[in-house]
Amino acid sequence: MREDLERQLEVLLDKQAIHELVMAYCNAADRHDFDKMRTLYHDDAIDEHGQFAKGPAKEFLDRLPQIQTPMAVLHHNVTTVNLKLDGDLAEGEIYLIAMHQVKSGTQHYDVLIGGRYFDKYEKRDGVWKFSHRAIVADWAYSADPSRIDLDHPFLAGAHIGRPGPEDPSYGFFRLLQRGTR
After folding, report:
1. What CATH number corresponds to the domain at position 162?
2. Rounded to 5 degrees, what are φ and ψ at 134?
3. No. of H helices and E strands in the chain?
């Protein structure tokens, strides 16, 4: 009985570590935290990110600053998380809704995407990281010009999120350090 309980606890801890990896990805993407993003993939990982990448994750990560430069707002929301483990290998189907406000000249447009990540993870040296990540788009909603209104009265007095180190989280948190998992 004790061995079975220890195995269940190990699986639970591994699933939690993978869940934290997925959440760290969302945070790194939304804050344009490229240093943090690099820590989430194994060196030989693959990333399939639509028109932006299909191949070594290193190439995607090298291009990520350029890809994200026009994105004034980027907001990933994970909904359903399905994980299966087999020792130090795991797979995940991760549902998400991602909001993008993109600068185009002097205008902005919005793209809201509902989709999934098809993930493969590997635990190496005791650490779970992505070994393969592929984006699957299930639907998209666009608005041109942008419908985002950061001057809406409901937001008066609120901290306003921003990409990069200007985001209020960088000054607020002591424990949730940026650039790390």
Report:
1. 3.10.450.50
2. -130, 130
3. 4, 6
48-73 burial, b for 16+ CB within 10 Å, e for fewer?
bbeeebeeebeebbeebeeebeebbb
In a domain, 30, yes or no: yes
Average pLDDT over residues 120-127: 98
Beta carbons within 8 Å of 157's beta carbon, 6+ residues apart = none
- Domain of residue 65 covers 2-172
Per-residue pLDDT, 181: 60
Beta strand pairing call for 71-86 and 89-104: antiparallel
pLDDT tens string 147-167: 999 999 998 999 898 888 888
Reading the block at residue 22, the tokens are 């997925």
Among 15, 17, 41, which residue's Cα sits nearest to residue 28?
41
pTM as predicted: 0.90
Q: Residue 46 falls within a domain, yes or no?
A: yes
Q: What is the pLDDT of residues 33-64, one digit of tens each?
A: 999 999 999 999 999 999 999 999 999 999 99
**Alpha-carbon span 96 to 49, nearest angstrom:** 14
Q: Which residue has the tokens 């070594």?
A: 56
Please compute the mean of the pLDDT values over residues 95-104 and round it to a whole number: 96
- For 27-46, b/e burial (b = at least 16 CB within 10 A) is bbbbbbbbebbbebbbeebb
Backbone dihedral region for residue 162 (phi beyond 0: left; psi -120 to 50: alpha; all else: beta)? beta
